[in-house]
Amino acid sequence: TLTFTLTNEGAEGVGFALDEFVGEEILLGAEGAARGFSFLGAYLVDEAGNNRHLVLVDTEGICVCSQTGDGLDPGQSARYFAKFPAPPETAEAMTVVIPRFDSVEDVPIAR
Could you tell me the pTM of the whole model? Predict the structure, then answer.
């Protein structure tokens, strides 16, 4: 599981409802179906094994990850998660890719 915190250090709010940034999914809640956005577009890269690992989805195609909400106000932080398949035993680090953000290389794998 990848856990991460995003902080808006800018002077204006940041919205997350962008197709290239997140996965657009149908979410089922108490009120019925609602449209929501998630971190389905994130992935991990195992540079040594030359593999790309995608966020897991459940049997209904919903990602096993945080929903983004509407965005972040200036100075606001929020913690998120995304569940991935277990990395190969030989992998010591991964590159984290979240569309529209800089990639973070050599993130150590905690086992």
Answer: 0.77
